[in-house]
Amino acid sequence: MSVEIIGLLGIIGMLLLMICRIPIFISMLIPTFIGIFYIRGWDALASVIEQVVWNQSHNYILTTIPMFILMGQLIYLSGISEELFNMFRNLFHGLKGNLAISTIGASALFAASTGSSVATTGTIGVLASKEMVSHGYNKALSSGSIVAGGTLGILIPPSTMFIVYGTLTEQSIGKLFIAGIIPGILLTLLFILTIYIAILIKPQLAPISDENEKVSLKQRFMYVKSSLWVIILFVIVIGGMYVGLFTPTEAAGVGALGALIIALIRKRMTWNLLFKSLAETLKTTGFIFAILIAAFCMNYFMSITNIPILLSDYFNNTNLSPILILILLILMYIVLGAIMDSNAIIVITIPIVLPLIVSLGYDLIWFGVLVTLVVEMALITPPVGLNCFVLNGVVPSFKLETIFKGAFLFVIPIVALIALLIIFPEIALYLPNNMD
């Protein structure tokens, strides 16, 4: 049996295990270990386990992951989400659909401080859903704006998705973070524009735009002032990386320390909450590390079966243009996003498609932003749609079919931004190309 056939059988076996709901990293490791043993024998397998697991576990850049996760946990515990929502609510006071728009704005800033789509959806969702329902907003629009805002957590830095991608492709984590800023802002604005246009077309989606009382300029300033903590922290962490003040790993440490200081200043920190945040950080970090180590083992398996090289050679020998091949890859990611977890998509596909992307001459920083956007759709599309299930869990009154219906509206701006990134790559590359 040829090594290529063994590689294909390994991929099929992995997918079958995932369909059987076996944990992602186990689904990756079982066919990988069997394949390496079959091709190279026990000594090679033992060497891979020793070298890959040991070396990658001691990769210094991976310390970025737990620090940013801890930063997000501490910000979450500081209870700043309500103030962020109220800040945007008052800034957009008097605008039709201001509560849905405020949900997007608050989600963007919360995502910038936590880097977690799940945390953003769950936290902002509880608060925003009550306000929008009480003011007569359509439930589909309400739930759609919440889950769409949550997706910003994997695009706006700091993002664990960028860390995973950068580790697998050996690209600069700092440049990936910076590359996500302009697309993240653009997607936020496109989400807001989508809400505004939807309400213009169907005013009944948001029958009540605001309370009757006026909001003075002083009141608006007070709400902005109360939310400055998270804005300052974001500027320090991301701005520090951009000007070369510190590395991504150092920025993660500064972010975690800053989040702790914020929680202490706001008198929200107790020993119980601190231990809880540390426990959640360990749990999430352990999961990410497990799939990363499995991905590195799988990288070796794929390399000895020649699957990535064969894929690259096949497309390079066709008459298809690079842009058409890119569109086919995007369609593949969209299909995978409908059936797989976003982290699984990245760790499974990147080792396979990376040689093809390099051979086509595409910038890997740009491709990281592009593929993150595509995977972002997986968070709000069925049947997986993780953000939709999170919202349904924290707000049971929003039925899944209603949430998915509202989420589909926000697929349009994501697709629009993907098209803009393909036509104008500088949207993602301008800032990282001008880093110190």
Compute the number of structural domains: 1
What is the CA-CA span between the terminal residues?
51 Å
Largest sheet: none
H/E element string?
Answer: HHHHHHHHHHHHHHHHHHHHHHH
Round the mean pLDDT to the nearest integer and report it: 84
User: Structural class, please?
Assistant: mainly alpha
Assign an overall shape: globular
Flag low-confidence runs: none
Q: How much helix is in the residues?
A: over 70%
Q: Say how many strands there are.
A: 0
Structural summary, described in words:
With 436 residues, this protein is mostly helical. The protein has one domain (63-298, 307-433). Helix content is 78%, strand content 0%. It contains 23 helices and no strands. Helix 2 packs parallel to helix 15, helix 3 (42-57) runs antiparallel to helix 15 and helix 17 (322-337) packs antiparallel against helix 18 (342-360). The mean pLDDT is 84.
